[in-house]
Backbone:
């Protein structure tokens, strides 16, 4: 089967500083791929090039190709908003808009021109159910999103991303700011979404990567060191540096 | 620690002194002005009242805000959201804005007078005054809008962009609604500042009240009126009249500030944005 995302020879520079060097990596449809590596190794940068969010920053230069299906998203004629609808993103800290719960989830569909209240309600309910938040917020959709707990806010952000029906979901350390219980809920949720969505997830938590990912990629100093089935990476890494990282010999 | 405490003591004393001075001024103003403050004084014109002055002040401030709020917001959005931060062009624009903002208002008004009255042959009128006030107010408005927009966390912008919104959609649907409370408060502050402007208006709108009210006619405002009767007035009891006008102006400004604060809190609390369902 064709991979969902095929990244070839991807390099990224901030000003003149290289952040990613010649990364080649494929993501299969429906799998959960975990990106691990020490801070500043380029895994977040990698994630942000997959929906071209990196180009919103000043002085970023990208080379190489990223194929989403058979579309090269790096090409300049490609509509960036179209890509971002197909590739959703969840951020490190929950960042719901200061609107109501409903308006948060309805934001994406409204952007696409969905105005019918019935349709919007249906999308909102379905997205909140998928994000395992519906039972906690039903009947309270008009309440401000910022009144929710941190974990609920993060699940709301996942619902908001799912509401535009993306094919790929990028997650940038989605549990970094959450307590263990909320983290467990998010992990459970990722497990439930596996297969339906292609998920690429950056994490600092090695156990989390081991628990929920199908494959794991290890980044170091802007380069991809190795990628493989999670079990193999954690039990029998091919590269010496991976083993050193997993046994705690790099600062993470 | 001792030094910090001493500084605190000093600033507390200064604050109390400042407050006392303010209360003293306010008290004497109220004492001489309040007896004159009747319905007739507020509504009639000529020597017995300040009706036209109130109307002129409201009209001038309104026109100025209608012109400068969209303008200020537009410039702020362009600078803050489109030209990326810290670019050279933004710094140059900031410099220009700071210069304009620190220029004495009368100097700006004289420049406006030269252009509007001298070149375009506008009469000394409410509209010329509105133009002068707009020139005076827009850098202030840009500053207020910039501050309000940049207080909106970048994470909102990122979330919106990541959902496929364009920069424009992000500004209109997320950034401005999220900044609305701060914006309204800033607009109230700008209004209060404009209502007290006198020097610029003496030159551009004049010190007369025309018989037939018109935007193209001269129109003295409350602040100008105070200045006029204190310096040129020949009526008896001019001090009391000036004080009463001052009290009116201050009450007006207080109401505007209080209202804008309340409305801002309303938006800040519910963070409304646009409505759902």
Residues:
């Amino acid at each position: 089967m064709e991979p969902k995302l095929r990244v070839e020879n991807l390099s990224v520079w901030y000003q003149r500083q290289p952040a990613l060097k010649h990364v080649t990596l494929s993501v299969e449809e429906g799998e959960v791929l975990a990106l691990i590596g020490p801070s500043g190794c380029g895994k977040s940068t990698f994630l942000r090039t997959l929906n071209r969010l990196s180009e919103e920053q000043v002085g970023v230069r990208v080379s190489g190709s990223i194929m989403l299906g058979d579309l090269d998203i790096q090409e300049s004629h490609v509509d960036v908003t179209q890509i971002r609808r197909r590739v959703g993103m969840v951020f490190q800290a929950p960042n719901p808009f200061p609107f109501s719960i409903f308006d948060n989830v309805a934001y994406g569909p409204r952007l696409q021109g969905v105005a019918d209240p019935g349709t919007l309600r249906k999308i909102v309910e379905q997205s909140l159910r998928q994000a395992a938040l519906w039972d906690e917020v039903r009947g309270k959709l008009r309440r401000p999103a910022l009144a929710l707990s941190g974990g609920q806010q993060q699940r709301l952000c996942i619902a908001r991303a799912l509401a535009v029906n993306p094919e790929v979901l990028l997650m940038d350390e989605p549990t970094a700011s959450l307590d263990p219980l909320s983290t467990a809920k998010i992990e459970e949720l990722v497990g439930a979404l596996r297969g339906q969505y292609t998920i690429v997830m950056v994490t600092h938590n090695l156990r989390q990567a081991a628990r929920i990912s199908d494959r794991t990629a290890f980044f170091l100093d802007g380069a991809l060191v190795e990628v493989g089935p999670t079990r193999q990476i954690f039990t029998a890494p091919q590269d010496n540096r991976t083993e050193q990282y997993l046994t705690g010999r790099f600062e993470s | 620690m001792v030094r910090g405490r001493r500084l605190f003591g000093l600033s507390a004393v200064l604050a109390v002194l400042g407050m006392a001075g303010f209360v003293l001024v306010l008290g004497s103003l109220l004492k001489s002005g309040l007896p004159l403050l009747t319905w007739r004084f507020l509504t009639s014109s000529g020597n017995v009242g300040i009706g036209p002055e109130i109307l002129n002040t409201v009209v001038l401030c309104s026109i100025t805000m209608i012109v400068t709020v969209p303008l200020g917001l537009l410039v702020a959005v362009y600078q803050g959201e489109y030209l990326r931060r810290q670019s050279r062009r933004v710094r140059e624009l900031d410099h220009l804005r700071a210069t304009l903002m620190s220029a004495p208002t009368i100097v700006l008004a004289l420049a406006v007078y030269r252009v509007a009255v001298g070149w375009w042959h506008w009469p000394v009128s409410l509209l010329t005054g509105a133009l002068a006030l707009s020139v005076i107010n827009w850098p202030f408005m840009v500053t207020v809008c910039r501050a309000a927009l940049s207080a909106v966390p970048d994470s909102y912008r990122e979330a919106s962009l990541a959902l496929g919104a364009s920069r424009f959609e992000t500004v209109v649907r997320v950034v401005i609604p999220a900044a609305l409370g701060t914006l309204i408060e800033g607009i109230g502050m700008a209004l209060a500042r404009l209502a007290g402007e006198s020097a610029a208006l003496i030159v551009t709108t004049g010190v007369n009240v025309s018989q037939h009210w018109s935007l193209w006619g001269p129109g003295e405002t409350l602040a100008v009126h105070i200045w006029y009767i204190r310096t040129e007035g020949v009526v008896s009891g001019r001090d009391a009249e000036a004080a009463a006008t001052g009290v009116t102006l201050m009450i007006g400004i207080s109401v505007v500030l209080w209202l804008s604060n309340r409305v801002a809190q309303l938006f800040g609390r519910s963070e409304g944005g646009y409505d759902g369902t």
